[in-house]
Amino acid sequence: MISDKISNSIKNSSMIRAMFEEGAKLKKIYGDDKVYDFSLGNPDPEPPAEVKAALRELANSEELKMHSYMNNAGYPEVREALAEKINSETGLKLGSDNVVMTVGAGGALNVVLKTLLNPGEEVIVFAPYFVEYNSYIDNHGGRLKVIDTDYKTFLPDTELLTKSITSNTKAVLINTPNNPTGVVYSKKILTEIANVLEKKSKEYGHTIYIISDEPYRKLAYDVEVPNILTIYRNAIMIDCFSKSLSLPGERMGYIAANPEADDIASLMGGLIYCNRILGFVNAPALFQKVVAKAINSSVDINIYKERRDLLYNSLINFGYECVKPDGAFYLFPKALLADDVEFKNRALKHNLLIVPGSGFGRPGYFRLAYCCSLETIKASLPAFKALAEEFK
Ligand code: PLP
């Protein structure tokens, strides 16, 4: 039989998956276009034309050993291209040896946590947060410490952060643009976090890292997403192409670190080694080459912006409370019942698939993923309105 731990974890596991299954049942009864599915963060726009062109070119290439094992860090020329891109945007001086190609951002997070954590060390995350962090931190013997963000803005509270750091804190894991709130952290707030960690690292005599999980960095609407490597020397940046190029199934991401970070050689050596021993070995060969060729492209973010504007403005008109998201493709409004799981059930009666905020460590809210078609959003609006009216 499978282990007790995994068996229990499966029982308690993701509400998002549960919604997916409920949705499939409803779609069978009512038809696809009568069920409004806002549950999964699976991008629906097709990848940009550059991705398809790169794939065609590579398929016709006579290059030998294109599908072989490689250095566990990934192809040097792909890492070089990413380092140069970061340098051109920031003025930093990363080399190819400051970049490791990974199996998506999920793979990258596991590699980073495996590399950094001694048993029992703490990783601080800000609620609400991407729920997989629970498992990823546990996978490597770490302890998750969740602290709340401000109730009005979902921004980290640096005073609370200062109080929460102990001699056992190894890293603070941030996510901007954020899943589930869509909030983007400004340079000011990132600098405040960095200042706290600088001070606490000195006080405790060891490096406290920022791990910055940034799958949505290219999906920001009219605001800058500052590069964390320019703000904190001991930051580890994680990016992927799952959302920016609509390639989640291809599992392509990377880790980048500042060449000035403490003991950078051992950090990079650890990351490369962990990429190998976690069984990833190296990131998928073909798609490393594809993303390098499409390095300057991204999905048209106006597609998401139009959806955000329609959904956000409509919900506010119907009486929902919500922070206006500046990035990613999520909205995180307040549930109209304190019990967000019950609220999700009430929404289901209107064929609305939403995810309770408890699934992200913030009960009393719900998440909407607007990576579904504009038509679905338009068709769903009467249902959101009717749901709100039930609580007036
Ligand atoms: N981190 C966050 C905040 C995410 O929302 C996701 C995916 O939805 C991931 C990491 C995982 O990304 P990937 O599919 O590239 O592994």
UniProtKB/TrEMBL annotation:
Keyword Transferase annotated: yes
Entry-linked CDD domains: AAT_like
NCBIfam families, A to Z: PRK06836.1
UniProt-listed InterPro entries: Aminotransferase_I/II_large, PyrdxlP-dep_Trfase, PyrdxlP-dep_Trfase_major, PyrdxlP-dep_Trfase_small
PANTHER family: ASPARTATE AMINOTRANSFERASE YHDR-RELATED
Aminotransferase class I/classII large domain mapped to chain residues: 34-378
Gene3D superfamilies, sorted: Aspartate Aminotransferase, domain 1, Type I PLP-dependent aspartate aminotransferase-like (Major domain)
The organism of origin for this protein: Ruminiclostridium sufflavum DSM 19573
Keywords associated with the record: Aminotransferase, Transferase
Protein name: Aspartate/methionine/tyrosine aminotransferase
GO molecular function: pyridoxal phosphate binding; transaminase activity
